[in-house]
Amino acid sequence: MIIKKITPEQQCLVIEDLYNSTDSISSTEKFNRDYGNNLGRVGKITLELNDFVRILLKTNFNHFEIDQAIKRATGYDVDLDDLI
Q1: Residue 16 to residue 25: CA distance in whole angstroms
Q2: What is the distance of C-alpha 33 from the center of its chain?
Q3: Which is nearest to 4 in space by CA: 53, 50, 57, 71?
Q4: Which terminus of the chain has fewer CB atoms gathered within 10 Å of its CB, N or C?
Q5: How confident is the model over 2-52, as pLDDT tens digits?
Q6: DSSP states of 18-56 as a string?
Q7: Residues 53, 78: contact at Cβ < 8 Å?
Q8: Residue 53, Cβ density class (10 Å: 0-12 exposed, 13-18 middle, ≥19 buried)
Q9: Banded pLDDT at 83 (limits 50, 70, 90)
Q10: Taken in order 54, 55, 58, 59, is the CA torsion positive or negative?
């Protein structure tokens, strides 16, 4: 089984997309302010993709939007139902 990883840069692109922003740094800082204390900070280290997705699923973002943002940033298809 191949473990998919997501780089800090890709994480920031996903967060930027979820906030409908054009600035991944500000978007990631906002995400970490809003969710970092409870879910952990993103955009700092490479994570396993499944761990990153699990973090996002605990937010108020729409699951479809999470799936699409990950696909655009990484090219990976993620089955969110397996991670809920």
Answers
A1: 8
A2: 15
A3: 50
A4: N
A5: 889 999 999 999 999 999 999 999 999 999 999 999 999 999 999 999 999
A6: HTT-S-HHHHHHHHHHHHHHHH---SSS-EEHHHHHHHH
A7: yes
A8: buried
A9: low
A10: negative
Q: Which residue has the higher pLDDT, 13 or 81?
A: 13
Q: Which residues of 60-82 are buried (b: 16+ CB within 10 A; e: fewer)?
A: ebeeeebbebbeebbeeebeeee
Whole-Å CA distances, 65 to 34, 51, 69: 18, 17, 6
Amino acid at 75: G
Q: Where are the domains of the chain?
A: 5-82
Q: What is the DSSP letter of 3?
A: P
Using CA atoms, how far apart are residues 38 and 21, in angstroms rounded to an integer?
23
Please check the confidence at residue 56 and state whether its pLDDT lies above 80.
yes
